[in-house]
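Revision sheet: structure tokens.
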Amino acid sequence: MAVVGAGAAGLYAALCAAREGAQVALISAAPLAQTASYWAQGGLAAALAADDSMELHLKDTERAGRGAVRRSAAEILVAEAPECVHDLQALGMRFDADRQGQLALGLEGGHSVRRVVHAGGSATGRRLLRQLSALVVADRRIAVLENTRARALWMHEERCRGVACEDGRVLSARGVVLSTGGAAAMWARTTNPPGSQGVGLLLAQRAGAQLADLELMQFHPTAVIGVKGREGFLVTEAIRGEGATLHDARGERFVDELAPRDEVSRAIQARLTQTSASSVGLDMRKIDPALFPNVVGALREAGLDPTRELVPVAPAAHYMMGGVVSDLQGRSTVAGLYAIGEASCTGLHGANRLASNSLSECFVWGRRAARAALQEPAPKPAQAAELKALRALPPPPVAGETTRTALWQDAGIDRCPEGLRRLREDEHPLARLIALCALERAESRGAHHRTDRPELDARLDRRHVTIDAAGEASWQTWD
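Predicted:
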């Protein structure tokens, strides 16, 4: 099996496949533990508390998703997330616990009860990636190819047979699992590292796979702005779950801080527009700094002490709900090709992801995709002509500053048809597809806000904009 991408989903998928006795090639564009998952400050959402249940987790997920959640996917997540937490513990992952040894569960936006498992307060991603990376490196069944980029997917007789890398290597595999992350770094203002460029989406589409919901980019409401060296640094909403508040230029609170992310982001953006300010203030002065040491430490390093002064924040592109169309096992619409984590689109998140469901998704579908991929037919070696053709293909493009600025201006929190039509002419193919999806969805729903169509259209409940290999859009209903 070949896994492209070494974030939380890719690492766990590789480990799950290796535990089944498979040989795995793990392709990582960066050194291990330097992916977007590393920066995840949230945790894993799982119904583990006595006052919680799978039904309540499902209800919160669907409410946050604004009528676009695929119920079958959400049912799988809420049922299997607790198992994944226990498995990670068995793999040596230590989550935050109280004095009695019980998991210390956090409260985040959109959740009706405490159900978010953390490690080191807001250092969950960092600790997960370190632990999983160490296990992967120690497993002789997993070959890690660091600083290696995928150039193309090897297709033969309408089946994905492997991966061609930019260094000329072509790897044959029983199944190929894309765990390449999202595309939030294509926006000028983002919480993501530069590598989150939607590379896996372009690889999959070029191989014939369908994409969906590309218009649904979630903007995190509290990203630092105006602090040198920390621009776009995400301040986890778990801090708001512990009582931090948001204030406008007059010092007034103006939003329910624990509302779902789309609501809070739009409220902040509206207040910034009204006041011509560049930020609102996050007041975390009453929060115990020991609960979130990496956030407090990072801000202090940048010259801002959150225990004494308000933190200037504003929304930033954070998480793409869209991606490679994937079924409940992670299968794409191309045989032999799988997608998991933020690279995938199962419909789980609907139009607005519930906080901390994303890491849970990485592990639930990482395990499912690994098991399914190992049932694919045995790989066949590539012929010389195939190798030559694969090595001649250009790698997926990277968004330049012009594209990133255009996406922020024309596909930001507020969108209009004129700006989206302008974006349709952009030089970057994924930017053009994002604009196409946003034009197709002529309503406002979750993370997608059209200024000319500010209301949700109930006729589009559970309807998803899909893109085929030719770049044509159509609508599908997912139950």
